[in-house]
Amino acid sequence: MIRSLLAQMPVPVKVGIPLASALLAAGCSSAATAAPSSAPAAGSSASASTTGTVISTHAGSAGTFLTDGGRTVYLWAKDGTNMSACSGACAAAWPPVPATGTLTATGGAQTSDLGTITRSDGTKQATYDGHALYYFVGDSAAGQTNGQGSDNFGAKWWLVAPSGAKITANDTAAAAAAPAPAPSATSGTSNAGGGWS
After folding, report:
1. What ranges do the domains of the chain cover?
2. pTM of the predicted protein model
């Protein structure tokens, strides 16, 4: 029956079927290779792309503060200049902003204030005006500031102004959803080791 159907088809259709099949197979093959091979790691950002980490700004009710182009970034009062004292459980709750590729500043952020430090685990962390930068796991959407003023792990966490100064005012307009609970673990109450408290 198939031979009789094939015999009744005009020659252009007979040639077109294998060609269409080849094009379809090629299209499916290239679509499969274009798909991402894995999901982004937790705490990663679209701004940490092949070009590198991008630090930008966002206007909130407490003033203009730094973001990675979406997620809010914080400084920790316990850190010293160009160093991070946050590791283990602290870094799980406050993931370091990775320094990937070429660091870039947009908006009101200044390229001259960007830098990197090497963490104890060998990874690179972005800094701004000497402050190690962190995300907060309680921020679930771009521009949220649920970590502002938190006293987790023995020192305050603050938004960072484009000048590099800490912002201590509450940012009341940036939380788009109910704030996530802050981690309850602490690593002491000392504020030693940092000059930004």
Report:
1. 2-34, 54-167
2. 0.65
